Amino acid sequence: MSHGQQLVFENEFELRCRQPSLGVIYALLLGWFGYHRFWLKDRKSGVVFLCFSWTLLPALFSIFDALCMRELCSGYNNKLAKKLYDDIQQISPY
After folding, report:
1. What is the pLDDT of residues 7-44, one digit of tens each?
2. Could you write out the three-class secondary structure of 20-75?
3. In angstroms, how far is CA 63 from the centroid of its own chain?
4. What angle do CA 39, 26, 19 make, to 5 degrees?
5. What are phi and psi of 92, to 5 degrees?
6. Phi and psi for 56 in degrees, rounded to 5?
7. Residues 36, 62: contact at Cβ < 8 Å?
8. pTM for this structure?
9. In angstroms, rounded to a whole number, what is the distance separating the alpha carbons of residues 60 and 57?
10. What separation in angstroms does the CA of 17 have from each of 11, 12, 40, 76?
11. CB atoms within 10 A of CB 49
């Protein structure tokens, strides 16, 4: 990767990456409705949380998600880095 490509990658990654501390806040405050799952681009789980939001189950699962938020964000950030790298390599003529 050239220096310019690295700068583009770092800037885009900084803008789009997810921070575990913010994810914990979302999970504890809005997890009942699955907001933290939508924030992590996990739409299927978010819809399940939303559909069962009238029960106590999403609240319990969101507490568990808050405890595992570092791993959830790492998984999201790893997928993001791979996608950004592939996109930059595809666009770049070199």
Report:
1. 999 999 999 999 999 999 999 999 999 999 999 999 99
2. HHHHHHHHHHHHHHCHHHHHCCCHHHHHHHHHCCCCCHHHHHHHHHHHCHHHHHHH
3. 17
4. 65
5. -70, 135
6. -90, -10
7. yes
8. 0.87
9. 5
10. 10, 8, 10, 8
11. 25
